[in-house]
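Sat 14:20. Reprocessing the chain from the morning session after the first attempt stalled halfway. Input below, unchanged.
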Amino acid sequence: MSHPRHRTAIVGTGGIATAHARALGEHDDRAELTAVVDVDPDRARDFAAAWGTPRVYPDLTELLREEPVDLVHLCTPPASHAPLALQCLAAGVTVLVEKPPTLSLAELDTLAAAAGESGAHVATVFQHRFGTGALRLRAMADAGLLGRSLLATCTTQWYRDDAYFDVPWRGRWETEGGGPTMGHGIHQFDLLLSVLGQWETVTAIAARRARHIDTEDVSMALVTFTDGTVASVVNSVVSPRQTSALRVDYERATVELEHLYGYRDDDWTVTAAPGHAEVETEWGRSRSEATSGHAGQLAAVYDALDAGTPPPVTLADTRRTVEFIAALYASAFTGERIHRGQIDSGSPFAQRMNGTGTPWQPATVR
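Finished this time. Tokens:
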């Protein structure tokens, strides 16, 4: 059964918008980029010209008033995500929002309530969930081929110099929501959570080691999961040798991934436990040259829109990840072990990720 192409708009034409436009181009039989929005008219016009987009608008309000769209991609700075998504929901338009989806758990819950009233949906860009390796890993784990998960490590060790933080909204709690925990490592530990399921406790530290910013530039956490799996999570923007790495030790195999900003099948390694060579055989049955990225998630989004179902990653899925972030910061800044569900609506860490405050002083020079 054929479906009409989805009329799509991109709001915010900064760097990440190019990844969205490129992914849309890979699905031009299913979607049409009909409009772009940016507060900078010259940048918007240049972006529209580069991607063959017919119309440009100065703000989302005018777009929603003038343009019939099925899906809005939010590629704006983090502080604008919640208010712009609320506008889309009020207009009955489904929205795909870049990470971090909101600045706080409370904002995310506000979006969920609005989506419930609207009938439209909010999906978060967590594209690494949709790479072929992740899909294969979850399928094999769900089928019981790997045995129980026992231990995991998850690291995002990236490098961002001082000049990176000259952009006014970066490195500030009120505009970015947090440091590498919120804006960098989120992709990798979201992948971890999508594989291992529900987390139960977090014990963490966060520090400002090198960058003159308000937020942390390093964080580390010890995590327990419902099934008893234990894991460590590291997030950094001060690491000259950059890597994104995931390792899960199962009863029957160790599964490892190392990449930077997107992975292919060649970036995965599977080492079978003695007597379980069939795991490596099963892993190797299907191969793909595709790189994990926005195009993979968009395919799943269009499938959902065609079927009339909520597109992935839903707000319920996203909440597990955002609650994990809030728990990490709460543990780091209070010294307590934080349990899932402990951060309720009355907690300062639900209202803002720095909650009761950091152990360091706010940066005075930017």
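The chain has a mean pLDDT of 96.
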